[in-house]
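A reminder from the course coordinator: this example appears on the midterm review sheet, so study it carefully.

Given structure:
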């Protein structure tokens, strides 16, 4: 049966994968509750629309620099910890209690957090791949050139990175990220 005015169109792919990358440096101490609220709001919204979502936090492995100086040519000289609050495939309602384990400790190894998120997004097959970087300030100084390169490579791969400045004095996300809000 043919129908008048029926037109066949291409189906629009609205699938999405999101990586929420959260700064857990020491300066986040007074922003833990609002940051948790932001993590929950984003993860819940993505889950509710059927998207895939991971939420991770990054921080240095210790508070003080140990060792005899910078390692030549390296963007960091201390260990990094990645805390996984939600992984792709997890249902938000099953893991939401993990978000209360957000910490504020050490330095700001943002490039390492972004790299972890990019590695996960790079194997996702969804049509839309987005990373939110939630932070209260600038990354460790040596991470800035690395982040600039990561943003360029992500864009080339079709991954959008959005910097989210949390609190006063976070306007610098405009300078570090092509897409940003503070």
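Designed residues:
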């Amino acid at each position: 049966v043919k129908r008048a005015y029926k037109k066949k169109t291409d189906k629009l792919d609205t699938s999405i994968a999101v990586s929420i990358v959260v700064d857990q440096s020491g300066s986040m101490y007074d922003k833990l509750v609002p940051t948790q609220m932001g993590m929950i709001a984003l993860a819940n919204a993505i889950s509710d629309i059927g998207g895939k979502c991971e939420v991770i936090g990054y921080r240095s492995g210790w508070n003080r620099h140990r060792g005899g100086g910078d390692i030549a040519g390296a963007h960091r000289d201390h260990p990094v910890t990645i805390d996984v609050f939600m992984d792709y495939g997890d249902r938000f309602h099953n893991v939401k209690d993990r978000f209360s384990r957000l910490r504020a400790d050490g330095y700001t190894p943002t490039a390492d957090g972004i790299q972890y998120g990019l590695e996960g997004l790079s194997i996702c097959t969804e049509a839309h791949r987005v990373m939110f970087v939630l932070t209260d300030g600038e990354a460790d100084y040596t991470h800035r050139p690395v982040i600039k390169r990561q943003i360029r490579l992500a864009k080339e791969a079709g991954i959008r990175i959005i910097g989210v400045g949390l609190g006063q004095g976070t306007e610098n996300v405009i300078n570090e990220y092509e897409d940003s809000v503070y």
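The radius of gyration is 18 Å. The longest helix spans residues 32-48.
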